[in-house]
């Protein structure tokens, strides 16, 4: 229903624009002629909208892949946008949870919208700054694909409030991912911290491009924002609920943010190199606090925690320092307050290990300039060595620096392993082991490292005569002796 | 106040039927002891201070109690009468009301003692009877028992059931408005109907002897009620009358059951107590006790913590030691036998003193050592936000329940008194003040503005 409503109002727009301009002040004759010319051009081009749509379909694909976990296989379908002539395609970050390692994602398939063809693709890795995942289509698929840059135009589109845009959604696999048309007007443009437009209605499937009426690339649809509703049901008055549309979105990352970042194709499947500073628990300074600290025109970020041995610690940053500027550039006042945290995060993510970053911080009442040489991000959960013990019913992974921060372990107290996955109703789950438990001892013997834990658990797993084993697990600072019954 | 006639007739009829059926099956209603007990059960109406919503407010509640002495001492629950009570009103069996005062409370066992205003009683020539205790240690499951109290405000309600279990462990670390309960005692479980308002009333035998104080029930379950055994209640009430509070020793051992682990630890059955966890910085930690250790002896006495039911009595043995005493722990660690000595500290609740700063619309609680340990704070400084009032400076600043105020105007807040000083300064000379708070180790800044 929605689909047809937009089809009709979409093409009428340029005519109304030209009429409005035509009745303007006679003193601006030349401008009027010019505007009229533009409007006519728009309306004549807009009349070709079906042709524009056909042409741009070559820039979008449906992407299917599989996430394999210890016991389950999760098929995933997302929408992708073609970004270059080598068949590189991007899709949005949320499709792969951050703890999933690259070797758990496989079977990438591409489907052109509305066609029955199927092509394979390879996973190239994630990009930390944009969150995008990159894949590359197999050779024979590439000829039919057109990069979105082809529609970028000479001047990057800067949508203003009220501008009309259009985009596409993709139906499901049972409908051959047939494309459908959506259109709406820009309701809001904001820095979040990236230039983002929110439209009055859903404009495209998340991850798909959005265009101007003349077919110029205007931005990339993001995941939809939640909307509040009241749910009325029989026997109950009403309940406030939040709904998120997972098929269509009204949120668009503008072309000016998308185009310069399309070159960030990961050189490694891990997404590395990743710049690392080692500050945690960043909190925004709200406008009232900023005023109190006499920082009216800008914002700041409070550092809650600094990892021991991190670049921030080595440079002399301290917890409670308030970051005011990065490389001489004041932190902007963004709305809502929390956005400045993403801003600071992106400032680090856009840099590389080894880069020097100067932070201006407020410490008490004094201002300090601190030069930090960024390091390499320590091993992340998705990169951690891990092993699944099918009979015991759990996956353990190595203890990471990050785990030390979460568990508030004393420096040097980094032995043990972490429970990454528990198979429901397995011997370990039944015994009360929980995900993220920090295993300190196996059978009463302290575990120094991952290798040692693997050796011990492998022996237990292989020994069919074993009746039980005992773990010492730490959870929220409290330990527990857990007996795991095997037979 | 006049009632219309219809409801009272209906009630009388209803009462008649209930009375008939009771006569047919039960003798308790006739026994002298039981009648005496009924004369000793009271309804307790309490008005108490609450610091919950960013202000000092009053809340009211109804509970039950039982008079246990000639001089008007009444035993009830700690969750009925607490130190926050500002007005305690007792309705005697004669339906006359008198005021009462708190004598002492002990949330660990959910017991409190109040005393009626004897002078007022004498002036008004009011009489009451007091109950006798029975032998709660000799109860057997299946024995008939009665709960007497004020469920949902229905004064002097008797319900009947049996002892469902005479030794039930039931520990609740945040059971009484955030206070710990049940670490040091087991409970009597009964299927005599216990509803809200029964709290503090007695659980009695057919001859009217008090064998427990009704305390809690699973809401929504069918008659799973719990009472503190009289043996514990007698001991605690005596101490409360003497000292107003019960001082307990703390070592910082979190015990676990040894059941099925004997072979792993090469132990004979019914020997020792497993150490599940040792509180960081506690006397046990300083003494070198470690998780996975087995405590075989406590000051030379053998201990047996094989089953969950056995742990509260062991915890109580430790708690009963004088504060500051050296406790010798005979410990088995793997093949090693160790003798460790821990010096006990005074047991502290996780709930600290509470206060409200009305002009800020902020209510707070001192961070106790136990709370700091539980939330893995580096120390017990700071003050926890437990309530904010909408539209007042605290709420407007964005601070929220769960935040811990660490600094005000750049100065560390070690105690509640520090915060009170800053508040007074704000009241005297209202001006914006900078607050530093943390939550889950995240530090954030707020400004309280007049």
Task: Give the secondary structure arrangement, pairings included.
The complex is a heterodimer of chains A (487) and B (450).
Chain A: H1 2-22, H2 29-46, H3 49-56, E1 60-68, E2 73-82, E3 88-91, E4 105-111, E5 119-126, E6 133-137, H4 139-142, E7 164-170, E8 179-191, E9 195-199, E10 209-211, E11 217-221, E12 227-231, E13 239-243, E14 251-254, H5 255-258, E15 275-276, E16 279-280, E17 283-284, H6 287-292, E18 301-302, E19 305-306, H7 311-315, E20 322-326, E21 329-330, H8 339-349, E22 356-363, E23 366-373, E24 375-376, E25 386-389, E26 394-398, H9 401-406, E27 417-422, H10 427-430, E28 438-442, E29 445-446, H11 450-462, E30 468-475, E31 478-485
Helix pairs in contact in A: 1-2
Chain B: H1 5-25, H2 32-40, E1 41-50, E2 57-67, E3 73-76, E4 85-91, E5 97-106, E6 111-116, H3 118-123, E7 144-149, E8 157-168, E9 172-176, E10 179-181, E11 187-190, E12 202-204, E13 210-217, E14 225-229, H4 230-243, E15 249-250, E16 253-256, E17 273-278, H5 283-287, E18 294-298, E19 301-302, H6 311-320, E20 326-333, E21 336-343, E22 345-346, E23 351-357, E24 362-367, H7 369-374, E25 383-388, H8 393-397, E26 404-408, E27 411-412, H9 416-428, E28 433-439, E29 442-448
Antiparallel strand pairs in B: 1-2, 1-4, 2-3, 3-6, 4-5, 5-6, 7-8, 7-12, 8-11, 9-10, 11-14, 12-13, 13-14, 15-22, 16-17, 17-18, 18-19, 18-20, 20-21, 23-24, 24-25, 25-26, 26-27, 26-28, 28-29
Brief overview:
Chain A has 487 residues and is α+β, with helices and mostly antiparallel strands. Helix content of chain A is 21%, strand content 33%. Chain A contains 11 helices and 31 strands.
Architecture overview:
The complex is a heterodimer of chains A (487) and B (450). Chain A has 487 residues and is of the alpha+beta class. Chain A folds into four domains: 2-55; 56-271, Thrombin, subunit H, CATH 2.40.10; 275-376, PDZ domain (Pdz3 Domain), CATH 2.30.42; 384-485, Roll (Pdz3 Domain), CATH 2.30.42. In chain A, 21% of the residues lie in helices and 33% in strands. Chain A contains eleven helices and 31 strands. In chain A, strand 1 and strand 2 form a beta hairpin. The longest helix of chain A has 21 residues, at 2-22. The model of chain A is unreliable at 1-45 (pLDDT under 50). Chain B is an alpha+beta fold. Chain B folds into three domains: 24-245, Thrombin, subunit H, CATH 2.40.10.120; 249-346, PDZ domain (Pdz3 Domain), CATH 2.30.42.10; 351-448, Pdz3 Domain (Roll). Chain B has nine helices and 29 strands. Chain B has helices spanning 5-25, 32-40, 118-123, 230-243, 283-287, 311-320, 369-374, 393-397, 416-428; strands at residues 41-50, 57-67, 73-76, 85-91, 97-106, 111-116, 144-149, 157-168, 172-176, 179-181, 187-190, 202-204, 210-217, 225-229, 249-250, 253-256, 273-278, 294-298, 301-302, 326-333, 336-343, 345-346, 351-357, 362-367, 383-388, 404-408, 411-412, 433-439, 442-448. In chain B, the strands form six sheets. In chain B, strands 23, 24, 25, 26, 27, 28 and 29 form a seven-stranded antiparallel sheet that branches. In chain B, strands 1-2-3-6-5-4 form a six-stranded antiparallel barrel. A six-stranded antiparallel β-barrel of chain B has the order 7-8-11-14-13-12. At the A-B interface, helix 6, strand 30 and strand 31 of A face strand 17, strand 28 and strand 29 of B.
